[in-house]
Design goal:
ten-stranded antiparallel beta sheet, five-stranded antiparallel beta sheet, globular, mainly beta
Length: about 220
């Protein structure tokens, strides 16, 4: 197990990809994920995106201490070693916030977990396919909150009705010939007609009819407009 397991129960500061930092109490460390509590929410962070973690004693002593959580940690089966995949599976159907790319986060539900991606239903982006390797963090909503304060009647769990492939690439192939949005449209050339997929690249034709080729392993999300 990781050497920093000795920090469990201590105040820590974690830096992850994108120059993002979190502070709180280190609650648990699993095979490929860690959990910190920031005083109000639990944050599940895949270790693939963690750059460093350090004890907040001394250098950060002037900051107000985080109040320790009450009750049990969400998404955990008793006496079970946590893992990224188990967290995703245990979170299915519950309100969560996830952070993928840029300054955007998604609010909604996980509906399916496949080999290297999961399916997420958002009131804004609807059904979205998300590569597991690009999720930066996940946090559950408190039980009395819903995304955008919508009523639960307006937020039914909406699992995809189409058959799902086991891998992200194979799932994307099903949309050849259709309009597709990658990475929530964070680049003009990530919105267009999916023309072809070959050799780990997708060909996307933009509104002006010009093709852009994107490497699949660097694409984070996909959804139909």
């Amino acid at each position: 197990m990781y050497a920093f397991k000795k920090l469990i129960g201590e105040e820590v500061k974690v830096e992850i990809s994108g120059n993002t930092t979190f502070s709180g109490i280190l609650i648990d460390i699993g095979l490929d994920v860690l959990v910190i509590y920031n005083g109000s929410r639990y944050l599940y962070i895949p270790l693939i995106h963690m750059h460093n973690i350090k004890d907040k004693k001394g250098e950060f002593a002037a900051e107000e201490a985080t109040e320790k959580p009450h009750g049990t940690m969400p998404f955990q089966t008793e006496n079970e070693v946590i893992s990224y995949r188990k967290i995703l599976l245990n979170a299915k159907g519950q309100f969560v916030e996830i952070f993928i790319t840029g300054n955007k986060s998604l609010h909604g539900y996980i509906t399916n977990v496949l080999n290297d991606y999961f399916v997420f239903y958002s009131p804004v982006f609807k059904t979205t396919f998300i590569s597991m390797q690009h999720l930066k963090w996940l946090t559950p909503y408190t039980t009395d909150l819903t995304p955008y304060t919508l009523s639960t009647a307006l937020l039914p769990v909406m699992p995809s009705t189409r058959p799902l492939s086991r891998t992200f690439e194979e799932q994307i192939k099903k949309f050849v010939g259709q309009l597709l949005v990658f990475d929530m449209g964070d680049h003009a050339n990530k919105v267009g007609l999916l023309s072809d997929i070959a050799d780990n690249f997708v060909e996307l034709v933009n509104a002006e009819g010009h093709s852009a080729y994107w490497k699949i392993s660097h694409l984070k999300t996909a959804n139909t407009p």
